[in-house]
Structures are given as C-alpha cells and as structure tokens.
Amino acid sequence: MKYSSILNYLNSKKCKFCKNELMSKHTTFRIGGPADLFIEVPDVCTLQNLLVMMKKSDIPFFLLGNGSNLLINDDGYRGVILKLDGKFASVEVNGEFMKCGAGVNLSRICKTALENSLTGLEFAYGIPGSCGGAVVMNAGAYGGEMKDVIKTVEFVDQNGEINKISGKDCGFSYRNSLFSKNEYIITFVEFKLSLGSYEDIKSRMEDLIARRKFKQPLNFPSAGSFFKSPAGYHASALIEQCGLKGFRIGDAAVSSKHSGFIVNLGNATSEDIKKLQSEIISQIATKTGINLEPEVINLTDNPNS
Q: Can you name the CATH fold of 91-201?
C-alpha cells in the first residue's frame, strides 16, 4: 500500500488523520468526494517529514486552507489532503506586529487585531479564508490587499527546507504571489499593523461586514468571487451585462444577488460548476471579446482526482 509508511509515521506521532474523508465537509462550496488521506498537521517538523515521504513515494498532495476558494471533484482526490492545525493555529501579538499560523481563519486574526487596537486588517474582515490561503492569493477587498500589511512570510519548500522572506519579496500582484506559482507551503505570517482607535477599527469592520451581507449571497454555499476581474473591468458587471445573472446549470447558478458569485443551490456537482464556468467564459468572450479567468482553484483538473 502506497500510504503505509505515512500511516505508520502518523500513528507513531499520534497525529489526527482520516481515510476517505468527504471533502464536501471541508469546502465552502459543500462539494467534493473522498480524499484518500486527510491529515491534520500539528507542527513544522511533521510537515517536513510528510513532504519528504510524499515526494519519495511520488504521492500527490494538496494543502487545504479554509476550503473557501476551491472546487474538488465529486469523485474525490487520489492523494493526500493536508490541513494545518496545532501550532499553525496560533496568533501572537507583539506591539504593532502579529505573528499568525497559516491555518488561522482571517476573521479570527481581524478580531485579535481589534482587541489590541491594531489597524490595517479591517479590509480582510469577512473574507472566508485562512491566513496562508489569503497570502497565496494576495486576497483583498474594499481597497486593501494582504501585500499592504505583511512584514515576513515563513514557508517550507518542496524539499522540506524552512525559508523566510520579507513581504516585498513575495512577488505580490492581483490575486497572485510567489506562492501561487511554486510548491511552497506557508507556515507562519508576520503582519505589520499600526496602533489605532478601538472604536474606529470596530466601526470600520462592522461597516464592511454589513456591506458584505447586503451585497453577497451568504445564504448559499459558494467559493466567494469566482472570477478574477480583468484590468479595467469588474467580472460581475461583465456577467450581468451579458444577461447571465441567475443563469443556471443543474444546481449551480450565477447568483441573482451578486453575479460575481457562483452558488450551490442545494445539490450542485463539480461537473455542474465546471459546465457553468465554461458557459460563462464562452459567452463573455463571444459578446465582449474579454477572456475571464477563474479565481477559484480547480482540483478537478488534477489527473489524480
């Protein structure tokens, strides 16, 4: 069995893992079949050892954040899903600096910043992602991006080596970074914030979350904004302009509330989502000449899925 050495190691370290774990339980789309092996990784040493073992045995793996920007095949994933937990779920505050594990939810980081009257992360409140995933995608909203507040990033490369680089060396651009182009796993992120007024920070966060609730279809499972906005355009406006608001294939639909979202109306399959994505891209290209690119990571394209 190709996972025998990994299972022996996990048992020896008393690590949490599951075989054939349904990924629909771990994605905000509520879509995805069973992964061969789902592992909760508690620390850097365990992560390093697992990476070495998987590389040696040529076992595919995927690092799962909050599952908020992801589409997984209904047939599942033929490989290992890694979920950072334990020490990767820590948040430490030191003056105007916050060091956060890559597995921490962004909302928790924002709330910790508020509790310490630290400003700079208000834009991220309500973004449904993990710290590591947000850095990989350079997540942003309401005029702010992760690149604006990152001091340093620690990561493990494909050889299991630990690295640390400054925020300015992360190659940040719109929904991209050094980490989205390489097989690096972010472990810890240090933010540089500023001391501010607790009441002002709270007011800004409450305003932004109210805007999200008003504009976004939070009552249906989705992966957040599905498409990247082309330079000079908004993807949602292009979709609406082409008459696709509310357009549906199976139980996958363009949200009638915000056309930048594809939602699961109840029993959408990964195939429904992919067909809808293709139809949107095709119609936008035909009617406007603009090529939309998905922002969502599509694991159904993985040959091992």
A: 3.30.465
How buried is 133 (Cβ within 10 angstroms: 0-12 exposed, 13-18 middle, 19+ buried)?
Answer: buried
* Residue 82 structure tokens: 């890694």
pLDDT tens track for 37-89: 999 999 999 999 999 999 999 999 999 999 998 999 999 999 999 999 999 99
CATH architecture of 4-86: 2-Layer Sandwich (3.30)
- What is the sign, positive or negative, of the torsion defined by CA atoms of 275, 277, 278, 284? positive
What pLDDT, in 10s, does the model give residues 216-250?
999 999 999 999 999 899 999 999 999 999 999 99
Alpha carbons 200 and 163: distance in angstroms, whole number: 36
Specify the fold of 217-301.
3.90.78
Residues in the chain: 305
The C-alpha atoms of residue 274 and residue 205 are separated, in whole angstroms, by: 34
DSSP-based three-state secondary structure for 123? helix
- Which own/partner contact pairs does 207-211 have at CB distance under 8 Å and 24+ positions apart? 208/122, 208/123, 208/125, 208/126, 208/141, 208/142, 209/125, 209/126, 211/142
pTM of the entire structure? 0.92
Task: Determine how many CB atoms are found less than 10 A away from the CB of residue 278.
Answer: 11
Backbone angles phi, psi at 187, to 5 degrees: -110, -45
Helical (H) or strand (E) element with 156: strand 150-156
Catalytic residues: 175, 225, 295
Measure CA of the first residue to CA of the last residue in the chain; give whole Å: 18
